[in-house]
Structures are given as structure tokens and as C-alpha cells.
Automatic annotation (TrEMBL):
InterPro entries: ATP_syn_F0_a_bact/chloroplast, ATP_synth_F0_asu, ATP_synth_F0_asu_AS, F0_ATP_A_sf. F-type ATPases have 2 components, CF(1) - the catalytic core - and CF(0) - the membrane proton channel. CF(1) has five subunits: alpha(3), beta(3), gamma(1), delta(1), epsilon(1). CF(0) has four main subunits: a, b, b' and c. This is ATP synthase subunit a. It is found in: Cell membrane; Cellular thylakoid membrane; Membrane.
Length: 252
């Protein structure tokens, strides 16, 4: 689907034009891949891998530079996982929650800060991976698999008792909840990132000097918050699967 929004003045000239929905497609066998999403995703992963390697090349007892920054990021992620999962359960889930947070955070900020338009493609343009619904749905489905795995690994088939507790009448609602969780996760992230990029693009087209800067700064803040919300909800869903509906909350 292609959407074209334009502001014109009595058929004389175009003041602003914004095109959304055009993709650079690759054919891999029988599959069609969004090439720009593939490239941007690997670029984000490359940044994270290089930063991790740089931080661990020459570890010092008193950290500085990139080591200090990465240790701060790790501590933040550990606290995030601990707050959601509790002291006893959080450690195995730090890599998963941390990967979600860092990938979304770097993707969102990369989309806001990097001038992707300078890289020309035959069609479409490179943007943040989270700008594409396929990426956010994939992240949401991974989260769903993670909390099913968490519940089954701890409780076995007894995990499915949660669907009929405290009464079997709630079975349809419990099943519906498992579908709405990934939907809400994916559409919340996708909608906020696309809306932010469209707002910034419109302001840049209409008032290309200093007016867009506060909107861009707000977009960076929103992008960081969206990464935090996604990782926090992932941790909350995993905690719910581990503890069950009827048990007490986090243990500290």
C-alpha cells in the first residue's frame, strides 16, 4: 500500500510531499524479504556487537570509556530484570530482556539520528527496523515464546492450569489474552515509531530550520521510553508465567 500526502498551493507548486509504504524487496527462493529492514537490522546488530567487543577487549578494574558505559548499561538492564522478575528468577532472563531493550533502543535512536536518506536504494529507503511492522511483530512473538517457555520449563504441563483458574468460565478470556499480548506489544512500538518519524518528516518539510529540533528531541525521548516499555512488559509477562495468576508478586 502506498500513501501519498501532499500540500499544494492552487496547482502551482508542491510545498511538502511525504511517501510511506514503499519497500526495497529481495527475492530469496520463494520468500520476499524487505531489503532495507534486513540491512538496517544487521547494522544495529553490528553496532551492538562492536560495542560489546570493544568494551571487553581490555577490561580494567576501574572502568573508563566504552567499558564504563557498557557496564552502566548492563547494570541498568539487570535492575530492570530484577524489578520485574524478582531476586530469585531474574538472572537467566537478563540476556533476553537486555537484548530486546538494546536492539529496540539502538534501532529507534538510529532511525532518529542517522541520515538514512543519504543511502539511495532502487526503491524505498532505509529506516529504523522498528519502523516496519514485521520487525515489531517478530519481537512480540519472541516475547510470547519466551513466556510460554518460562511457564512450561518451571511448571511443566501444569502451566496450562492457569487457563481454568480460578474458574473454567475464564478459559476464553485467558486464551484471548495470549493473542492480545503480542498484538499490543507490536502495534504500540510500531505505531509510536512511525508516528514520530512522520511528525518529524512533516515538520522538516514545512519548516526546515529550527522548529523541528524540539520535536526531534521529544522523539528521542519517546524512542527510549518505547524500548523501556517493551522490555518491561516482556519481563512482566515472563514473571506472570513463572509465578502464575494466583501467586504473590515479586520477591526482593
Amino acid at each position: 500500500m502506498e500513501i501519498l500526502n501532499s500540500l499544494t498551493y492552487p496547482n502551482l507548486f508542491t510545498l511538502a510531499e511525504l511517501e510511506v509504504g514503499e519497500h526495497f524487496l529481495w527475492k530469496i527462493g520463494n520468500y520476499t524479504v524487505h531489503g532495507q529492514v534486513f540491512l538496517a537490522s544487521w547494522l544495529v546488530m553490528g553496532v551492538l556487537i562492536i560495542a560489546s567487543l570493544a568494551a571487553t577487549q581490555n577490561i580494567q578494574r576501574i572502568p573508563s570509556g566504552i567499558q564504563n558505559f557498557m557496564e552502566y548499561a548492563l547494570e541498568f538492564i539487570r535492575d530492570l530484570a530484577k524489578n520485574q522478575l524478582g531476586e530469585k528468577e531474574y538472572r537467566p532472563w537478563v540476556p533476553f530482556i537486555g537484548t530486546l531493550f538494546l536492539f529496540i533502543f539502538v534501532s529507534n535512536w538510529g532511525g532518529a539520528l542517522i541520515p538514512w536518506k543519504l543511502l539511495k536504494l532502487p526503491s524505498g529507503e532505509i529506516a529504523a527496523p522498528t519502523n516496519d511492522i514485521n520487525t515489531t511483530v517478530a519481537l512480540a512473538l519472541l516475547t510470547s515464546l519466551a513466556y510460554f517457555y518460562a511457564g512450561l520449563s518451571k511448571k511443566g504441563l501444569g502451566y496450562f492450569k492457569r487457563y481454568i483458574e480460578p474458574t473454567p468460565v475464564l478459559l476464553p478470556i485467558a486464551i484471548l489474552e495470549d493473542f492480545t499480548k503480542p498484538l499490543s506489544l507490536s502495534f504500540r512500538l510500531f505505531g509510536n515509531i512511525v508516528a514520530d518519524e512522520l511528525v518529524v518528516a512533516v515538520f522538516v518539510l514545512l519548516v526546515p530550520l529550527f522548529v523541528p529540533l524540539p520535536v526531534m528531541a521529544l522523539g528521542l525521548f519517546t524512542s527510549a521510553i518505547q524500548a523501556l516499555i517493551f522490555a518491561t512488559l516482556a519481563g512482566a509477562y515472563i514473571h506472570e508465567a513463572l509465578e502464575g495468576h494466583g501467586e504473590e508478586g515479586h520477591e526482593e
